[in-house]
Amino acid sequence: MKKAFQLNLTTSDDPGNLYPIDWIQVETFIIEGKQGKILDISNNAYTPTKGDKFYFLPGVSIPRVKLKDLTTQYGIKSTRSIKDATHVFAGKSTEHKVTETKWLYRVSTEVVKRIYDYTKDITDGYYSEKLKIALDTNEHEYVFINWDTVNLFRNSKNPIFQEFRNEEGTLDDIRSSQYTHLIDDNFVEDLLEIDKLQIPILNESELLVHINGEDATTIDEDMYNQLSTMLNSSDDDNTTLAMEIMANCNYVDSLLYLELLFKEHSYTMERSRTKNHVNFKGLLAFLGKDKSYMSTNIDHVMKSLLANDVLTKDKIDYIMDKYSDEIQRNGDTDVFKVQTITLNQEYLEKLNLNYKFTKVPEFIPEGSENEDEFNMHSDLHELQHETCEENNSEEINSNESTTEQLEENKDTIDELEIKSNSGDLLKTKMIENNGDDFEWF
């Protein structure tokens, strides 16, 4: 966020006084930074420490009653005074709640500095001093102005404004207004105090990790299946109970199954009034979901596991076993890439060959001596290997050498040309196995 201000000016109508600027009003506010964010919310982890005091900005979904375990263990308290706080927390909706938008014009800060230099000796010192303080505090390249002040720049006979109009490009910025995001007047003082005290604003999800305590339920596969059955039920009481269990579980240890419940049952939960319960809103805040739109896809599940440092091979295996067909239908996504393409069983049988086109090169982990042990489906790999040996045939990849194939296989070889997406000509081999029976996979 950046400190900025709005400047409102009036001038005298008396030509004898050379149309002096006789009134200057300065409104200080906080405006969005270069990244389009007003609040600088840190993603640093939070570790409970004895004597911590929390200040919660509007929009935080943490139930205060759930702080009781932290209060008992660490003496942690919440406070209504920023000056007493050791940590400040913001929620997903905080920025929306503390900001407002206005249509404002703007001029460069350098132009306003020239106005100050022009007025400091001929305008009431009180107003000049306020303008100087505003300029010293300003962190923005522009100063914002309203319609009345724009008219002065365009039409005033005051010498300083006439000077601006005679300079090419000086007033280009006031040709149209800008939709400006800024901190609501009610929260400017709080945000300035936080900035002054250098207290980092933490994401509430960093505190939610510690909220439910070590005794909280962990959702495993069996409980996941039970909760799914409850959410599939037409009984509203079952839905409410399932959502309450989710809201009070150990978020991190249950993360895979929590995300899968949202993937499979988001519509049911969106329709339930339980979504407005403070505990469930805390869960939504932790997962970064909105109560009006909880839809979750497989990419969301993977990204959530990765962001919370609980993405492991066994979890990926579980997702692949459960959703491999869906992944195949969707093709490449941000997370999943289709590595190998083959033909329908009918085509493979008619051609009597084992055809495989490798689209993405196989990744070999650093320091690995045998990449096969990292195959996500090692059992399938072994089955393929055994089948190939029994039929005295080899799987042919698009990246294998033509020379090697000619040396290793004396059967007839037909060359098939395939164009990749980039237009390069890729060559794969179709191998005939002399009519021997072959089990295709």
List keywords for this structure.
single chain; 441 residues; alpha/beta; 3 domains; 5-stranded mixed beta sheet; 5-stranded parallel beta sheet; disordered C terminus
Protein topology:
Elements: E1 2-11, E2 21-31, E3 41-42, E4 53-56, H1 68-74, E5 77-78, E6 87-90, H2 94-98, E7 99-108, H3 109-119, H4 125-137, E8 142-145, H5 147-155, H6 159-166, E9 178-183, H7 185-197, E10 201-203, H8 205-208, H9 221-232, H10 236-247, H11 255-271, H12 278-287, H13 298-307, H14 313-330, E11 340-341, H15 345-351, E12 357-358, H16 378-390, H17 402-408, E13 413-419, E14 425-431
Parallel strand pairs: 1-8, 3-10, 4-5, 4-6, 6-10
Antiparallel strand pairs: 1-2, 7-8, 7-9, 11-12, 13-14
Helix pairs in contact: 3-4, 5-6, 9-10, 9-11, 10-12, 11-13
Q: What's the overall average pLDDT, rounded? A: 78
* Integer tally of domains: 3
Rg of Cα set: 33 Å
Distance N terminus to C terminus?
57 Å
Tell me the structural class. alpha/beta
- Ranges where pLDDT stays below 50 over 5 or more residues in a row are 376-441
Estimate the strand proportion: 15-25%
Give the strand tally: 14
Fraction of residues in helix: 25-40%
What order do the strands of the largest sheet run in, or round the barrel if closed? 2-1-8-7-9
Number of helices: 17
Query: What gross morphology would you assign?
Result: elongated
Main sheet: strands, sense, barrel? 5 strands, mixed
